[in-house]
Design goal:
The protein is of the alpha+beta class. It has 23 helices and 14 strands. It has helices at 12-26, 45-48, 67-73, 92-103, 120-132, 148-151, 158-174, 205-212, 226-238, 251-258, 263-268, 274-281, 285-291, 407-412, 424-427, 433-442, 445-466, 468-471, 487-496, 501-508, 521-525, 546-550, 558-565; strands at residues 142-146, 185-186, 193-197, 219-220, 249-250, 295-299, 309-316, 319-326, 359-365, 371-377, 382-383, 385-386, 403-404, 570-571. The strands form four sheets. Strands 6-7-8-9-10-11 form a six-stranded antiparallel beta sheet. A four-stranded mixed beta sheet has the order 2-3-1-5. A two-stranded antiparallel sheet has the order 4-14. β10 and β11 form a beta hairpin. The chain is globular, with a radius of gyration of 26 Å. The relative contact order is 0.11.
């Protein structure tokens, strides 16, 4: 139990499980998937023991030399950087357990070592049985997504698997054009293979095919694997001519890639210009400005920008429509204390007090109520990535400080719209009576707090519906939805991590790496030879980069070529690679 004291001579796995239970319960919501605070991912062994400037987070056997112990022993942690989350202090017993855990060498729990291995043959059997039962109307639009390779990886905990399931559900519904939340349905007892219907998300088969053009794991069984090949043919017959040769796709790849451009824009039909989006949503921003029917706030420093920022809330067909005006410089027309109106009021007098912005972010409601995002330049043209001279992502959720539309925005706004306090309403420098009257009308401090809270509350209710069934279970049944880490960013980061030979074995479908002969010339030609055991003692850790593994070059990825070399299947050729 978390509340009892585990001693340093406790069974290492008992101690590890208790320590990680405490870290998960008290630290994970801030130091989990987003890596926002101090660069710490509390359950990631690579981060915990990594060399870093100053003390390592954990120094095995030495609490005094461990940064985590330093901050918890004096009750400097946990604290909340978020006004919406109240941290629960560590008890004296919990602190003592963590100290004893570090003294014992900080053992890591054996996450999923006792889970049954799921073979590729088993997955095909499940899909064959499921497609055999499909209604004829559903055969053209039924697709399958799999978490099997993660289930088979003993380094992935049960909690991580729950977060992956939640991420899949949130990703599907965050790029949905439907007016309802629809959860994916597991077809197996392990909850590893999920069925979706494209119609549930208002996607066409053409959109799905466009996505598959970028999918690097497409594989068909070959005739050497007779049982798999026969099941593959049975699935093709069951689908009556609607089979696209992809029996299933990896759910983690889908989450990591579909929530950023170009797929994010493609699935949501996000237009090239903001005016087109506003016309679709029933937003007349410039009419609202003229009439004063907008709620506005301004800040001098925001969470992603060190410059001025103005945020407006308009009404749309589906609820709120927020648009920010961002600035590269704070002088001249970029000084919102002197120029708090704009961007254009159609009034010569008022326009004397209008700012000139350099870009913006739009947060709008989808028909199902979840948030969607668009980044624009100063002309309102859609962009994939925000310029780092204007905005930057300290969490580095995309792997860099770039704000990537979709992925970075979902991470930042994990609880909905973020709270901020307007400073312009009481500090602006405008003295013109007509302009001051409009400023007083639209910079409504009380109104903006009310709508921020309402929009956040609505978003959290939708999160309960979307990810709650996967996260609020078992010991976490009563846990508030905002206390969980944002799952999409966690999965994206997990997917992009460097791979060990054991990770590669799991992705190839093997129970362990002993089945892979890394001295095989064909595998060496693919670059996999660097993972050979004889190189393990080299000063630098030798790993295989995800981009080396999944990038499509000449129609195939290294994963597909490795499968072909090992006799595991035949690559399904597609067009090309995703670029960010």
């Amino acid at each position: 139990m978390i509340g009892s004291v585990a001693t340093a001579d406790e069974n290492p796995q008992v101690l590890a499980n208790q320590a990680f239970g405490i870290l998960k319960a008290k630290c994970y919501s801030c130091h989990g998937g987003e890596e926002t605070y101090s660069g710490l991912r509390i359950l990631d062994r690579d981060v915990l023991f990594a060399n870093r400037t100053g003390k390592p987070f954990i120094t095995s056997g030495d609490p005094i030399a461990s940064k985590i112990w330093e901050v918890i022993k004096e009750d400097n942690m946990p604290v909340s950087p978020d006004d919406y989350v109240t941290p629960v202090p560590l008890t004296a017993e919990e602190k003592e357990t963590l100290r004893n855990w570090i003294l014992a060498g900080a053992p890591i729990p054996e996450s999923g070592a006792d889970r049954d291995h799921i073979s590729r043959l088993q997955v095909l059997q499940w899909i064959e049985e499921d497609t055999d039962d499909l209604d004829s109307r559903d055969k053209a639009t039924t697709k399958y997504l799999s978490l099997v390779h993660l289930h088979n990886n003993p380094e992935i905990s049960e909690y991580d698997l729950r977060l992956h399931r939640a991420a899949l559900s949130k990703a599907l519904n965050s790029i949905s054009l439907s007016d309802v939340i629809v959860l994916p349905k597991a077809i197996d007892k392990y909850n590893t293979v999920y069925r979706i219907d494209l119609d549930d998300y208002r996607w066409t088969a053409h959109k799905w095919s466009q996505m598959l053009d970028h999918y690097p794991y497409g594989l068909m069984p070959n005739t050497r694997n007779k049982a798999e090949y026969e099941l593959f043919e049975d699935i093709e017959r069951n689908l009556d001519g609607y089979f696209d040769y992809f029996t299933d796709i990896r759910a983690d790849w889908f989450v990591a890639k579909a929530i950023r451009p170009p797929l994010y824009h493609m699935f949501l039909d996000i237009p090239e210009y903001v005016e087109e989006l506003e016309a679709r949503l029933g937003v007349n921003r410039f009419q609202d400005l003229k009439k004063g029917e907008v709620i506005r706030g301004g800040v001098l420093v925001s969470g992603i920008s060190s410059q001025n920022r103005i945020m407006d809330r308009h009404r749309s067909n589906y609820g709120s429509y927020w648009i920010s005006y961002d600035f590269q410089i704070e002088s001249g027309k970029g000084n919102i204390a002197r120029y708090p109106l704009g961007p254009d009021h159609g009034d010569e007098t008022i326009n004397r007090f209008c700012f000139t912005h350099d870009g913006g972010e739009i947060i709008y409601r989808l028909p199902n109520g979840l948030q969607a995002y668009m980044l624009t330049d100063d002309k309102g043209k859609r962009i994939d990535v925000g310029p780092t001279s204007i905005v930057a992502d300290g969490a580095r959720v995309s792997g860099t400080t770039e704000i990537v539309n979709g992925l970075s925005c979902i991470t930042c706004h994990k609880h909905g719209t973020k709270r901020f306090d307007d400073v312009i309403s009481f500090s602006h420098a405008v003295r013109h009576a007509k302009a001051r009257e409009l400023i007083d009308e639209i910079y409504d401090v009380d109104a903006i707090q009310k709508v921020l809270e309402r929009d956040r509350r609505d978003h959290l209710l939708l999160l309960v519906e979307t990810i709650g069934p996967f996260l609020q279970v078992g010991e976490d049944k009563e846990k508030a939805i905002e206390s969980f880490p944002e799952p999409i960013s966690l999965v994206a980061r997990q997917y992009d991590k460097n791979m060990t030979v054991e990770d590669i074995a799991c992705e190839l479908g093997y129970e362990n790496s002993s089945k892979i002969n890394l001295n095989d010339d064909d595998l060496i030609d693919l670059g996999l030879g660097l993972l050979r055991p004889e190189f393990a003692d080299r000063p630098a850790d030798l790993v295989y980069k995800r981009a080396m593994w999944d990038s499509i070059v000449g129609g195939t990825s290294v994963y597909q070529e490795a499968c072909e070399v090992l006799g595991l299947g035949q690559p399904i050729l597609r067009k090309g690679t995703l670029k960010y």
